[in-house]
Design goal:
It contains six helices and three strands. It has a three-stranded antiparallel sheet with strand order 1-3-2. The chain is globular. About 15% of the residues are buried.
Length: about 160
């Protein structure tokens, strides 16, 4: 099968996307580290747990939700446990399973970090775009995630 090379416009769009996402994630991580002492990946774990009514997720579900390997998530949760922000509990319905539970201290840390993070997201992305561009960004992101979320992504 012949390679479908990118056109000039496609190449420019691809490179702009790569540079923008790399710079954005670096800037967001720096902001969270500077203002709250939280790496972006840890912040995401706290957010995912906070969005659950019980503030609890199975470790495997949390790994999937944060797009982390099981071992990487386990290491991150151990660091969050050291801070008193997350607790691990055994799963009552599955002896091999473990739950990650967001503590009250973790909620407080997240609540302290969130305003600065939201402000950074607004400064770096939202306020630079028109309402139409925000809708396009959502549609583009949804299309990309939809294509990558399929069970059998061919590489």
């Amino acid at each position: 099968m012949a390679t479908r090379w990118l056109s000039t416009d496609e190449q420019l769009a691809w490179r702009a996307y790569l540079e923008a996402t790399t710079l954005l994630f670096d800037a967001l991580d720096r902001q969270l580290q500077r203002d709250s002492g939280i790496p972006h990946g840890y912040y995401e774990i706290l957010v995912r747990l906070s969005e659950e009514e019980s503030r609890t997720l199975r470790m495997s579900e949390l790994a999937d939700a944060t797009r982390s390997s099981r071992s990487r998530l386990s290491h991150a949760v151990a660091r969050l446990e050291d801070r008193g922000w997350v607790e691990r509990q055994d799963c009552a319905t599955d002896r091999r399973g473990q739950l990650a539970v967001l503590t009250d201290t973790g909620v407080a840390a997240l609540e302290a970090a969130a305003p600065g993070h939201v402000s950074a997201v607004r400064d770096f992305v939202i306020d630079r775009l028109s309402p139409e561009q925000i809708e396009q960004l959502r549609e583009i992101g949804t299309a990309i995630v939809g294509g990558l979320s399929q069970d059998s992504v061919a590489v």
